[in-house]
């Protein structure tokens, strides 16, 4: 925007302007999520509307809204999330430098931002990889926030999301008509589990499977309806796809959450893990991850006695690649709406932990505002 390099405007086409959209934007301005990284890192994890734009001074003709500008240019710019969890795309960008720990911290950060959205009564609605951007140091940003399900705590009005993506929808919403008013909390929780799975399992969808039990279900959506999670069922007639990495790379605490989300949750949706559940498990496991003695780009679960990546034929994280920034973990969502969020950052030069109000790294004196 002219005169403001940190914001950008979204202008609606005339046929997209409705009274409901205008009312929804006003509610969004008055009830934003507590973004986990604004105060501590100066980064927007949720590109929430900042102001509403009108064509006239009387503010009767809606034009659009302003939102934070997210840098998507250059090697340090934010990119679509699939370019990180897809092994081929990731290697093209980073060689082996975006490690499995980076992937886990990215999933952790997505869980934290999702929890912040839920805390205010909102939902992402059509939660999928396309509305999440990721940076090389594992920071994330939710975009297209004007499509979210938004709750007005004053009038108790809900502005619903009218779209859905089949391979991220839970079985109970696979045939849903989103022209109807449907609460999307259940689809958020289900989709979050899928996204976490994709980041930890090299882009594999949790319901991708092979075997006679799914021969009559060629699409991912049909497999979701069947509810056969191939990593927990003990049938020879259904197995994970051959291209999936071995499931034992996943820590047992996270395996239990996947089972609750995709197996137990198939019949009892209330048993699916919340964003807070995912955050807690991912935070714990990311803290105790091990590093391989033979390849500095290999990181793996603390439960394992040896590096699984060294045994896998496909080289997911090639050695001798330049490292890329240090991971930045976001704080957990909290049930206390008056609580403050605080992010944790690390010096990009020496990996020294930094507090929110420091201007320079105490170890190497690098200015905080110059760090990637």
TrEMBL record:
Keywords: Kinase, Serine/threonine-protein kinase, Transferase
Protein name per UniProt: Serine/threonine protein kinase-like domain protein
EC number(s) stated in the UniProt entry for this protein: 2.7.-.-
Coiled-coil ranges from the UniProt annotation: none
GO molecular function (one): protein serine/threonine kinase activity
Keyword Kinase among UniProt keywords: yes
Keyword Ubl conjugation: no
